[in-house]
Amino acid sequence: METRVAVMSIIVENSETVEKLNSVLHNYGEFIIGRMGIPYREKNINIISIAIDAPQDTISALSGKIGRLDGVSVKTAYSGVITND
Length: 85
Known about the structure:
Number of helices: 2
Structural class: alpha+beta
CATH architecture: 2-Layer Sandwich
Mean pLDDT: 96
Oligomer: single chain
Low-confidence stretches: none
Radius of gyration: 13 Å
Strand order of the largest sheet: 2-3-1-4
Number of domains: 1
Distance between the termini: 5 Å
CATH class: Alpha Beta
């Protein structure tokens, strides 16, 4: 199975969506390398960064599910390195 390393940048503007986001991320936990969350209280948003090593279609599916959540935006940057695991 070919995998890629990617980084997802997530901004949560609707705090009511955080529980749904955490549920989605939990479902992809086996692929997540690390996660960093920063609450930006002055702007009432949360900034989350996810490092992931997964097949291309898995990364795309996760990004799509996150992007469909209300008040959440996501951008993904991909590594050019593809490995066979």
